[in-house]
Amino acid sequence: MSKIIASISTSVDGYVTGPDDGPQYGLGRGGERLHYWVMGGPWTYEGGHEFAMSRPDKQFYDEMVATIGAGVVGRGMYDAAGAWGGKNPFPGPLYVVTHRVQDQPPAEAGFRFVADLDSALSQAVEAANGGDVSVGGGADVIRQALGAGKVDELIISTAPVILGAGKRLFEGFDQDIDLEVVKVYSSPYATHARYTVKK
């Protein structure tokens, strides 16, 4: 049976982007530091970048994606990432929750635009064919999935940075949820904590 696994990177003070996130600045001003762990160190939007994870980060990432059969993200993340250059880089199809489903890219890009989270999760579970479903960002999509009791596992990668502004992961979230630590990985660029969501 598929598990729903929500994962996101945050700053120590709980921000998932810096200020002014979006197509122009990606993760916002200063927000690229949240993903130093993905790139193996400092990088910039202007200078290009490659995936060059350090050993602990790669172990975490490989274990996380090993069971993934499909994913769900919000339109904000899709746009901020520049649609990943027009091609889904993740395992299985990626369902994008958006009010603008008419913007659907060609099927071969690997993205499916869906109008609501419930439909996106249902379709992703079916497409995963027994594999797990990743819920990536943004924060609003993760809050909705958690609030609806859909998330089985929550993964938070905390970068050693205090952003002071941007979008917070749990902004306005008022539910009381117990978590159980499953595993923790640590590198110079992030501490990755995997939690089971107690139901």
From TrEMBL:
InterPro entries for the chain:
DHFR-like_dom_sf, RibDG_C, Riboflavin_Biosynth_HTPR
Coiled coil located at which positions? none
- Ranges for domain Bacterial bifunctional deaminase-reductase C-terminal: 3-185
Query: What PANTHER family does the record point to?
Result: BIFUNCTIONAL DEAMINASE-REDUCTASE DOMAIN PROTEIN, DIHYDROFOLATE REDUCTASE FAMILY PROTEIN (AFU_ORTHOLOGUE AFUA_8G06820)
* Protein name per UniProt: Dihydrofolate reductase
